[in-house]
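Translate sequence into structure tokens.
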Amino acid sequence: MKIIFLTLITISLYAGDNNSKRSFYYDIQKFQDTVKSESKISEQYKLSPRKAGLYSAILPGSGEFLSQNYYQSLFFLSTELIAITSFYINNTRGDDQTSLFKKYANENWSVVKYAEWLNKNGAKYGDAATININPNTSLSPWERINWDELNAWEANPHSIGFTHVLPAYGSQQYYELIGKYLQYKYGWKTFQFNGDPLGDDNYSTDVSQEIKDYMAMRGKANDFYKVATYFSFAILVNHIASGLNAAWQANSFNNSVDANVSYSFDRISGKPISEISLKIKL
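Result follows.
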């Protein structure tokens, strides 16, 4: 309606001047073109919520930065850096602690000592154990044992106490079982068998201090890994939260973008002037 109103005024003002009318109609046409471009300009400055969300899902805070929410951008980016750093620190500490308890186990637990005890006392729990042990002491303990014979005896039915088969040397289960289950306590360096049946041994008195120390070392490594897992979960949540928030903030930003067209006469030349103002409410 504003354009139609101005056109009517123009006809009455410039009826006597053909050149002025042509000039004015030309300016009116430019003004109308400007009005048509108003929506295009508005769209040009608007953000894609989908892209903003994707950016923040990849790098938390980047989508918020596009919509000029700098404090939120800083928050998500800082959270990301803190979580990644904390994950790395705790995971590294877990690796270091794992190397420490493995070294301790290799120095203080021997599958040879365990097999020797089985060969001597295994008949009390089932069939007699006849595990072949290489006499060459220059070999590592796990290289001196016939592992198949050891596992075969462990897998046989027993009257009491033997519930697990020793995994291959170096595996995660290997290091867990030798400290966790009573049947493997006879492989520890300082453990002395008291002659009682395996299932009757009292755990608190028959478990040597080195077993307790070893389990404490493993527990500490697991604690580090557990904390690292929490931070890895925090990283995932931060990516999702920032992505969703960035999409919402981009949509809010678009609602605040307002392109307006104004029309007036130049005070000197008297020609019509069209202006576009872009307002962004932050």
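Note: Confidence is low (pLDDT under 50) at residues 1-26, 200-204, 276-281.
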